[in-house]
Amino acid sequence: MSELMQIHEHFKVRWGMVIDIDKCTGCGACVMACNTENNIAPSTDRFNRLRTVHWLIIYKLTNGKTGKEYDEAYLPRPCMQCENPLCASVCPVVATTKDEEGGIVSQIYPRCIGCRYCMAACPYHARVFNWYDPVWPKDMEKIITPFTSVRPRGVVEKCNFCHHRFQKAKEEARAKGQNPLELEEDAYQPACAEACPTGAITFGNLNNPKHKVYKLSRSKYAFRLLEKLGTNPQVYYISKREWIKKVADNYLEHQNQKG
Amino acid sequence: MTFDRRDFLKFAAGGAIGTLFTPLPWKLLDDISIWSQNWSWIPRVPKGNFHTKNTVIKLGGSAYGAKVNFVGKNPITVAGNKEHPLSYGGVDPVGINAIALMYSPSRVTTPLKKDTKGNLTKISWDDALNILIEKLEGASKKHNNILFVSGDDTSSANEIFSALLTKLNSTLYFYAPSDRHKYFVAWNKILNGWGEIGFDIENSDYLLVLGCDIFDNWSTYVRNQMAFGNNNIEVDYVGPILNHTSVVAKHALIISEKDLYKFLFAVVNVIINHLDNVSSITGIEDFLGSVTFNYNPQKIAKEIGCDVSDIKNFAKRLLMAKRPLIIAGSTIDGGGPTKNILAALIVNTLLDRINKKGGITCIPNPPKILNNALSHQEILNNDLIKFIMKQNTKNIDVAFFYETNPFFELPIIARKKLQEIGFKVCISPIMTESCYECDLIIPSPYFLERLDDCFTPFGSGAANYSVANLLIENKNPSIPDFFINLANKLKIDLGIDSFENLIKTKSEYFGEKYDSLIQGKCWIDYTFETPYSVKIWNRKIENIFNENGLKLQSDEVEVTCIIKRKVGTSLTGILPFSNNVIYEDELPDKYMYAHIHPATLEKFHLKENEKILISTNSGQIKAYVKEDNGIVRDSIGILYGMGRKIKDKFNEGKGENVVDILELNREDTLNNFYWSNARAKLQKI
Known about the structure:
The complex is a heterodimer.
Chain A: H1 2-6, E1 15-20, H2 29-37, E2 57-62, E3 72-77, H3 86-90, H4 117-121, E4 128-129, E5 156-157, H5 163-175, H6 191-195, E6 201-205, H7 212-217, E7 222-223, E8 235-238, H8 242-248
Parallel strand pairs in A: 1-8
Antiparallel strand pairs in A: 1-6, 2-3, 4-5, 7-8
Chain B: H1 5-21, H2 24-35, E1 50-57, E2 64-71, E3 74-80, H3 93-102, E4 112-114, E5 120-122, H4 125-139, E6 146-150, H5 157-167, E7 172-175, H6 179-190, E8 196-199, E9 206-210, H7 221-230, E10 234-239, E11 251-254, H8 260-271, H9 284-294, H10 297-304, H11 308-320, E12 324-328, H12 338-350, E13 360-363, H13 376-381, H14 384-390, E14 398-402, H15 406-409, H16 412-419, E15 423-428, H17 433-437, E16 440-443, E17 452-455, E18 463-468, H18 479-489, H19 499-509, H20 514-518, E19 523-525, H21 539-546, E20 557-562, E21 568-569, E22 573-574, E23 592-596, H22 598-603, E24 611-615, E25 620-627, E26 635-639, E27 665-667, E28 672-674, E29 679-684
Helix pairs in contact in B: 5-18, 6-12, 8-10, 8-11, 8-12, 10-11
């Protein structure tokens, strides 16, 4: 595992997200912003975990206690953009890779043959399969954005940190004569981070000390989901509530919390 | 030449190795993958120039400035506007859905008239105008024979509508019920305060929120969230059910909505000896006497079902805060009792938080340009529910419902009173429940398709004014201009020839350039009224608090609404992308969940996922039982916004309308109504 963990440390830029659970109200704006930005078709049936296409989902967490000790929280979960992506290693057609500066795990839709190995491999259930062709009601297809191609039935998809925004930010940096690998913090923000009304989602380069995420991801309150698996997600969470950390690593009741 | 077994194996092995080295199968697989995804029915992405324009979003939720992204002529997405003081860059689910909603299958696109059989038929704008002329000419002969309910309390369109109404011999002009009205009653009518209440959340360091969900659906919730996120504000929440505010609160306490004022006064009882400079407040001695005598923490804790330590802890945090702000509101906007709001205003006054940094602000009322129009305060002084419950609505000939949906959001008894009105007109962008109840439906242009303005949405910390420009082509007239035309046909001079000119005049009044405002600039003013005559206590106020709230029998539970803006507003219906975020634990199938505390489940011998019938004097709905530790005992929480009659696939077959089982209750001393809860009986089915 240690060798595997070294694989992607050569990236100079590691785009990452820090989600402050203590600030997340669970309003759903991030999910809807993601849907509209990335051409996820509106569903006419309520969310179905196995059928509804979603790149970002909000889980409601509870501490399992009763009375005054009862507590709840919301946890938005995008693709973790793992440093050691288990999905990429199982893809038989190289449709998903982690080979671009920035460390975003790609998903190349035209290459995907829909075998769903990646879905089985992803411990975060961050990937979804298109069981149906996407349908927008009459005239509503006018809201399709030019940013992401529309994926047909039979293709797996996932969050890519709004990669088109990364491309745009790089182009703008080049046009200004700046180094596209040293983007300013706000030059590149995914739709969810931009939409979040409490600023619970902070986005930036985890390797750049000038970016907020650099400090936040190193906070003593920062943690990642299922850290014990060694996937090293580039998505961090922050909470001062201990029980959330415990839930995040899926520890059993009798287990002591890590760290 | 022979071809033996060995030759076959050599051929097979050679073929297999050759296959590995030739790109042909990989290329074929790649091509098959690409071409099997390239079907004509898969929508293509648009091409065109990407650009952004500023606007203001309302749509029945929080009004705030936003940016609309376009590709060519088509708007595609919405983002927050960092420069706007009601957005700070934030957006809400309604705003994000706003573009999709414009193409909703349920958009009203032409005027519709209901025939004698109840069928709706398309008519022209001229026909709609002629029908209205005929109806209004007849109705204006009698005094107060025309009623107008406006769902937008921020637009100058209210001036045009109310000016026309006044000229037509009626002053029955109302805003749709909201907590803005309850704050007006509590502050301006009972406490004798001046100006309109606002909340300087940005500069506060401690918010004590009672009942309402200020981070999801109450007042300027987009700005509230951003203010919370950007500043170091500590939040405590007390209410009947945990919500989107409580989830980020430092401390949350669950108590019934009817007991919130008792809790607050018990907190005051604890801090009574620490209050400074209160001797100048009118009524202070009587108030402190009443609090000492009636709101003993031990007694109140027992009465409302919490520990004395809870009251003391909240009191301690309130005392420790440098710039505390207490915000009370209804769980369902406009539907809660007034006394919680009144109590919060009294305690804010007591803590010297009026017109102080991070406290309550007293915002001057908006200017009135048209002479015959009713002022904002005059309209707030009119209480729709009080009026329709007192009057015989059969005597009213014509009613207008402008961008409001009373036939969904008001209790059934109030809906029935409105149904009795002779001729009803609904002006709406979406074919809502109210449209189906009306005789004439007029399409209201969507926010991108019209010029509109927005003065200080309720809850703003200071007076502000923004203008939403017409951003896309619209064949239909704007509603205020349609009413100016209607007035002209009725030979009534409203004193203005177009809505645009009214907005221009208002812009001049504020000393702001119209062109800057339509480009997205927001005028903001930090001048406040001085409420020097506030009286926090007298016999009447004491009587208000001495009245008993809802009393439950042993076999009854209290109904509480769970409001989530991601579901939509009463005006929009379930939003196009709402279904992508309504999860299994919110809507299991066509029936909803009734959230019940485990102790209440035990009391009623119910188990999770059992189906129950919830009955009140108003009606019945069915639901599945869901155990929830985040709700007060002896109550059930049900998601609001479901059970829509809007006829499209986003709305159909999703739950039932919880308002159908809510009852109209009365606060006798105030002669006010509230309906945020009801007494219900549960039956297993």
